[in-house]
Automatic annotation (TrEMBL):
Classification of source organism: Eukaryota, Metamonada, Parabasalia, Tritrichomonadida, Tritrichomonadidae
Source organism: Tritrichomonas foetus
Keywords: Cytoplasm, Hydrolase, Nucleus, Protease, Proteasome, Threonine protease, Zymogen
Known function: Component of the proteasome, a multicatalytic proteinase complex which is characterized by its ability to cleave peptides with Arg, Phe, Tyr, Leu, and Glu adjacent to the leaving group at neutral or slightly basic pH. The proteasome has an ATP-dependent proteolytic activity.
Protein name: Proteasome subunit beta
GO biological process: proteolysis involved in protein catabolic process
Amino acid sequence: MSLFTILKKLIYLQIGYPTNYQFINFHFLQMSGLQFPQHDVIDGENQAPLQPANVEDPCGFIKNHLHFNYTNDAPDSNRIAAYHGTTCLSFIYKGGIVVAVDSRATGGSFIFSGTVMKILDIAPNMIGTMAGGAADCQYWLRSLSRICRLHNFRYQQPLTVAAASKILVNELYSYKGYNLSIGTMICGYDSTGPHIFYIDNDGSRLEGKRFSVGSGSTYAYGVLDTCYKYEMTKEEACDLGRKAIYHATYRDSGSGGRVTVVHIDENGAQRISQTDVFDIHDFDKKVE
């Protein structure tokens, strides 16, 4: 195997791993003057080659403008910011828990998708919501789901909501400072009743009766705090969750798409409805 091939494979191994070795590779490429073809084939798959930034100092450019910089010496004003827009809410009432979310995924001012499912199943009686980075939320919530299933297989009893949320927050705290972006609500019904825990990437863990997370949470809280009653019926509670998310999507550009409502009680989690916000808007206009 030629030195050229070995160098290429070593460089490919660094893709997706933002370590200091990657910065060294950029400098090495710059000094070596090696020219790679536009596309290459490794293990039978077409791979786009790793190319340094077309600037005088590629390593300095990356450290100053991208978030994956473990030295933390890049000025915040120079970093490329990825803004995450969403609205998720949950609340406890006499019949269980209502969880409502929108379905828009954004990156800055660009709308990536309008059909993202932001409610992920963790256990039959437990779900988690997504707010922040989609990849971070999906990975850690699925990891928690795996832990819950293994616990159920080994001990023939499900994890409580409090225990599951504690496991997740401990894992996230161990990665504090790695630029994760997670703001999730762990909602579930166990032998002790309904529980909602808010967890974020800084290691915060809060239990409460009502939570709203995301860029549109201010608007959702306004509706939720105004109309919330513990003695609501199931239909009233689901309508309140749907209404709060709709008003958030109406005012917040980072939220939109469809409103998904899930109800959780002693029988498990049940999806109630999934309604396009435009249909809700048209209905409200007809009522007026």
